[in-house]
Every structure is written in structure tokens, then in C-alpha cells.
Amino acid sequence: LAVLPYDVDIPRFVGDFTREMTSALTELNRDRPVEQRLRVRIALHYGTLTAGSLGPAGDAPVVASQLVDMDAARQFLRTHPDRDIAVIVSSSLYGDVVSTGFCSLNPADFEIIKDVVKGVSYDGFIYG
Fold first, then answer.
1. How far apart are CA 109 and CA 121, in angstroms?
2. pTM of the entire structure?
3. Quick one: CA dihedral 90, 62, 122, 70, positive or negative?
4. Which end of the chain is more exposed for a tag (fewer CB within 10 A), N or C?
């Protein structure tokens, strides 16, 4: 879990981070055999949180943690063996930043995903 500084430009971060992580993983895995590639799931969400005794507490870290743990995110990597990264954005982040065109990613490159994690229904958008 990474908590960004309060003054981060969220729209710029979403686009730049997604592209740079994708590029870095492609470069890292370029000459690796399939079974040795590093493949990751990343969830992006924003919201309020507070310091807790075990780290950041609040809905924001819970939502991010549940999105990255979705079976749909794992399934994405299974059905796209050529991809090294699955980036999932929360519905609120998608609605406020991606679909509005405020970030550099094309909204058409996202698919909605829904899942139940620990008895709670979550939905987000996966970048593909």
C-alpha cells in the first residue's frame, strides 16, 4: 500500500504511473522466460484516511486492497498472458479522472469489473 502526498496531481499520476509501470515491466521482462516474468496487479483509488495503529486506516486503503484482490484482476492476467500488469482503478477514480478525460489514458481502454470480496461487492475498471 502506497499513500501519496496530499498535493499529488491525481489525473497526471494515474496516466503517467500506469504508462511508466507498464513500460518498466516490459523492459524488465524483455529477455526473461515466461515462467520468470514479474507480473503485478495494482489498484488505484483515492479518498480520505487517517493514521491507525497498524498503518493507514479508512475506506481508501480498504477499497484499494479489495480491488487488487479481486478474482477478476487475477483472471485478467490469466486470459492476457502477454500482459505483465493489471491496473484496476476504483469506480470513483474512473468517473472523476478517467472518463472525464482529465488524465492521459483513454476511457475506451478500460473494462468494468465486478466481484465480491469478503462478502462485499466491489466494482472498478481494469486498464487493458
1. 23
2. 0.89
3. positive
4. N
